[in-house]
Amino acid sequence: MKFGVVVFPGTWSDRDCGWVVDQVLGAHLQYLWHKDADLKGCDCIILPGGFAYGDYLRTGAIARFAPVMESIGEFADRGGLVWGICNGFQILCESGLLPGALIRNASLEYRCEWTNLVVERADLAFTSQCDEREVLRVPISHGEGSYFADPATLSRLEQNGQVVFRYCDVEGRVRPNSNPNGSLHNIAGIVNSRGNVLGMMPHPERCAEAELGGTDGLKLFRSVMHSAAQVLTA
Amino acid sequence: MKLEDRNVDERRLREVALTADEYRVIVESLKRPPNDLELGMLGVLWSEHCSYKTSKALLRRLPSSGAAVLQGPGENAGAVSLGNGWAVVFKIESHNHPSAIEPYQGAATGVGGILRDVIAMGARPIALLDSLRFGPLPESRRHFDGVVAGIGGYGNCIGVPTVGGEVYFEDCYAQNPLVNAMCVGLVRANDLMRARAEGTGNKLLLVGADTGRDGIHGAAFASLELDEDSSQRRPAVQVGNPFLEKCLLEACMDLSLTDAVVAIQDLGAAGLTSSVAECAGRVPGAGAKIDVSRVPRRERGMTPYDVMLSESQERMLVVVRRGREADIERIFETWDLTSAVIGEVTNDGHLTVVDHKEQVARVPIQLLTEGAPLRRLVGLPPEPAPALDIDALPPPADIGAALLRMLASPNLCSRGPIIRRYDHMVGDATVIPPGGDAAMLRVKGTKIGIAMTTSCNARYCHLDANLGAQLAVAEAARNIIATGAQPLAITDCLNMANPDRPEVYWQLEETVSGMAQACRSLDLPIVSGNVSLYNESAGGAAIYPTPVIGMVGQIDDYDRRLQAGFKHEGDFVLLIGSSHNDLGGSEYLKVEHDMVAGRPPELDLARERAVGKLILTAARAGLIKTAHDCSDGGMLVALAECCLLGGIGMRGPALNPEPPLRIDAAFFGESPSRFIVSAPSRATPELQSLARRHHVEIALLGLTGGDALELEGQLKLTVQEMREAWEGGLGGPA
């Protein structure tokens, strides 16, 4: 199982994702430079958090034009696993690989804090080691993480069951006051209709070891490992 | 020698912030009058900010050596060995004047500057801390909001976690807010860099941002009092570009993969002039030649003066082995960064500036870096601080109500609204998050934890500068020890008012003496630091002496780290150390009696050492589960914080102090050298006998559990009630 972690100028979760893949999960790690279109045979591409190109124009607006993104688009079309975290989610929306957009937090402030996420889809490659309705504790760290989509897109997402994670309270109840950024329908993460492209604002790579405050994030990494193993044995 | 003979008028000198006497020294040394560029270069390097001409003689009194010290003062940052081949690099620096004028950019570029100091040592920055002082809210909200946003704006974007610091609100900072940023970095000890321009013929490479006209005379500006015209100096405040610095950081990390780099030096205050002069000044006999025409520029029509004095941010100077320039340029190209060979190292001891072929300045390096005449100022003790007649204070009518007011005080309340605006987790290394005594980061791949904190109770320093400085050092050490880590070393930022006033200079002298005494006694070297003077406004508003202590400590196994919040129900809660009638300068006196008076708490450094040793011994033996420094706000506030941070209450008998200890002092007095700890019941006898062996008092306060802080018949507040007061203290979103 080989994870590719994409590095744009301004990316900063690349090293954290790399650490979890390599040191915690024990999987094969390959960094992918934004100027390089070659995905080097990776099985799952992670677009990590950060401020690609400074995000001065609009989050993800410039990153989508990087050479690596064209290859990632083709890779996704072939059914490859693409996982956008934080800035990666923003880039996936800008590239059109996922619908909707991430806008400024309702508080108009950056937020770095722990959140609770209810898992609404446990049948995906990214969540197979979770239970449906399970509550994961995962931190966020963003200024522009409020999920927005037009009403038609939003209802299509809901009807197709494309919402994977929603911000909730400790008991898993989806409430307005458990929404840290004003996301519509408390959406924290969505998947494309085919189920192979996931975007999420929270940072699972920050909670893969107990000393960092929790290990729920590791479940998502393990899910990807597990699904790859199943593909291989199938 | 008359001034007019040398064709210099006062206005020209004022522009570069030099005195007539200093000008005379320059002329005598050069044996000719300096031209405008030379005068400008000398002006910035002789500014207080760069030359330390007022404080240098005093700073020599500070201890800076120790077995673990790899690099003391004089470099871009200090460095201390952690063992295992690792070194921790750290420094604190002020950005007070820019933040007063333009809070967001002033704070942001302060963060950017301190990051570059650590990067220049070859270290990867792993954490930021910020020590902040403002006038009271809501009046100072513009400063407060802007600074907090600026720190977050830079740190969050560049991806270095902001894990600690402090914020205080006091009248004296209303015109002169303080913004001190500290950066901690990590490097293999063998890869530690020094910014020394060695090797005649080696090339000087300027990398990063293009040079613009921004920030010219920033260092000189920082060396003057703020006045009505200060807002017109807004152009002297630079604008930060954290994205560019992120690329610069990564490129500099890649430099260590080659052997082509001799040195890296940050471009900060006084820009190219100071970075080249400092880099050459560290090597006896070395000089440098720069061709300003080769400096990549942001705008047209810039003069050599503009180029040499620009303080454009996000630039570094790299000294490259001759012939290896292409290797290094390729690394910067990868990150889409500009780099240009702008000159070379010479052996003539001079900084020579040419514009194409024409020589435009030539000044001895030593005159630039060491030539500023030291100022011998005279200190006179100020009026004694207002005395405190403790017997005239009425006892607290309702202890619970007083506690709630204390918890809601802006100086004691929860920093949550600030912390959540900073990314404090990026890097996957934060094993103790901000909000407790000290933060801790792990060294990935090892079990080593690095604890870090900043500390200074400036009210104490105002009441007694010497004792206040000692207390600041002691409290920082306690913060580190409360995590189970051994304090290692200090970086300090001395924020003072105008030292030309004898009582301020006296404060500076006393502050340095107090710091030196505490550092020697606690065996803590000061390996880097910064002095910020003239924090004073026209009209006489001067800041309290504010010697901010940044400290790092080490624990060999971070699985043994301690935090402040109670962990489990049914543990014993104990007070370690003894309490006295220490109400002078306390937050209680300010909140409940609206007074800043009296003497700060007495500090016995031998006791401080003993208490610290006891806590570390107990922590290593696994006898205690949590520890919290008991200082600002006193014992009851510390107990409430243990409940709030752990989400668990505590119940104990009523506390009836034995005379002469007063009840208000027992609850809210700020006697130093004390900790609140919690321990499993079975460990308590051993803990008590350990305390006896260390000759340290230990008193049982109660048992953890329930959802309230209760002292029978005296006080009962639910954790929820306390939380509402504590979390609302900053008046809504920061």
Structural commentary:
The complex is a heterodimer of chains A (234) and B (734). Chain A is of the alpha/beta class and 234 residues long. Chain A has a single domain (2-228), classed as Class I glutamine amidotransferase (GATase) domain (Rossmann fold). Chain A is built from five helices and eleven strands. Chain A has helices spanning 14-25, 67-77, 87-95, 151-160, 216-233, and strands at residues 2-7, 28-33, 44-47, 81-85, 101-103, 111-119, 135-142, 146-148, 163-168, 187-191, 197-200. In chain A, the strands form two sheets. Chain A has a nine-stranded mixed sheet, with helices on both faces. In chain A, strands 5-8 form a two-stranded antiparallel ribbon. The model of chain A has no long low-confidence stretch (mean pLDDT 96). With 734 residues, chain B is of the alpha+beta class. Helix content of chain B is 33%, strand content 23%. Chain B contains 25 helices and 28 strands. In chain B, the strands form five sheets. Chain B has a seven-stranded mixed sheet with strand order 8-10-7-11-9-12-13. In chain B, α7 packs parallel to α8 and α8 crosses α10 (242-255). Chain A binds chain B through residues 9-10, 12-13, 15-16, 19-20, 23, 49-51, 53-56, 107, 109-113, 139, 141, 143, 203, 205-206, 208-209, 211-213, and chain B through 152, 156-159, 241-244, 246-247, 250, 335-336, 419-428, 430-431, 433, 442, 444-445, 558-559, 733-734.
Give the spatial strand order of the biggest sheet of chain B: 8-10-7-11-9-12-13
The unreliable regions of chain B are 1-5
- Percent of sequence in beta strands of chain A: 25-35%
**What portion of residues of chain B is helical?**
25-40%
Described by strand count, sense and barrel closure, the largest sheet of chain A is: 9 strands, mixed
Number of beta strands of chain A: 11
- The overall average pLDDT of chain A, rounded, is 96
